[in-house]
Amino acid sequence: MVPGSNLGLVREKIATARNVVVLTGAGISADSGVPTFRGTDGLWRNFQAEDLATPDAFARNPRLVWEWYNWRRELIATKQPNAAHEAVAELERQYSQFWLITQNVDGLHRTAGSHKLSEIHGNIWKVRCTNCRRVVENHDMPIQILPMCDHCHGLLRPHIVWFGESLADEDLRQCDGALRSCDLCLIIGTSGVMYPAAGFASIAKEAGAFVAEINLNITPHTGLVDVSLQGRAKDVVPLLIGS
Ligand code: APR
User: Do 186 and 222 lie in a common domain?
Assistant: First the structure.
């Protein structure tokens, strides 16, 4: 259970903050039933995400990669935001200066009502043409394999940042600006191993922000942050904004 003093300190910081940034990872969606990447539940046909979410895997076997994404899309389509997603959306409503940075591609923050956000690893409900690069929403269930662009008939891929690919410059600029101007940063449900997101807490810290982590476990962030609250996001995050 979270020691009351730490909880009280973070609640106080939230009550007095002027500019808030929240960074989330798979742990915030775990309580909605979405498998995390490095937990025991992240496997599909004994493949790890690292085996499939890569440009090489897609070039070698686009059918297999699309089968995996169909599995993930169908699984995520049955999930709803949990109290932690809703609390983050409430935080956005409470602050005129707020930004959410999520590594999650499940779209649950948007469903919970978050609007001021960067989905830095993309969105599983968007596809991108490998030829003309158009990005469109696609909620087909399942998506036809292999999906082709309506505009140029090029092969569509998930609009997701794969291992070995760079984040969009615009997202990096937006996140850097938000992190350097915040006075409070909450890091929720991320293992802190995937860069550049793994370096975001340090940027906020260097900018003088109070940084708090909410996670089930100890992570590489734990030694860096001002307060580390150990517990399930759906239990802890709503306590932080309670009136
Ligand atoms: N509440 C809070 N934290 C939780 C919960 C929970 N209910 N369940 C799991 N966690 C924590 C785990 O302890 C872990 O630190 O969430 C984190 C999940 O870590 P990962 O599975 O590594 O997910 P994430 O940090 O989002 O991965 C970052 O790596 O694989 C790539 O692009 C992928 O976006 C992903 C990125």
Answer: yes
pLDDT digits 0-9 by tens, 222-241: 999 999 999 999 999 999 98
Nearest alpha carbon, ligand 1 atom 10: 27
Active site annotation includes 121: yes
Helix, strand, coil percentages, rounded to 5, for the chain: 40, 20, 40
Q: What distance in Å separates the CA atoms of residue 17 and residue 11, rounded to the nearest whole number?
A: 10
> In this predicted model, what pLDDT tens digit does every residue of 128-182 receive, in sequence order?
999 999 999 999 999 999 999 999 999 999 999 999 999 999 999 999 999 999 9
| CB under 8 A, 24+ apart: contacts of 172-178 | 172/120, 172/196, 174/99, 174/118, 175/99, 175/101, 175/118, 175/120, 175/200, 176/203, 178/21, 178/99, 178/101
Q: Is the peptide bond before 100 cis (omega within 30 degrees of 0)?
A: no
> Rounded to whole angstroms, how far apart are CA atoms 126 and 143?
11
Looking at the DSSP bridge assignments, the partners of residue 241 are: none
Q: Do residues 193 and 212 both lie within one domain?
A: yes
Average the pLDDT over each of 2-6, 84-88, 238-242 and give the range with the smallest value: 2-6
Cis before residue 142, ω within 30 degrees of 0?
yes
**Do residue 183 and residue 98 come from a single domain?**
yes
Residue 198 sits in the same domain as residue 229: yes
| 55 closest CA partner among 130, 150, 143 | 130
Q: Is 120 in the pocket of ligand 1 (CB under 6 A)?
A: no
Q: How many angstroms separate the alpha carbon of residue 218 from the centre of ligand 1?
A: 12
Residues 112 and 175 in one domain: yes
Task: Provide the token pair at 220.
Answer: 């590489």
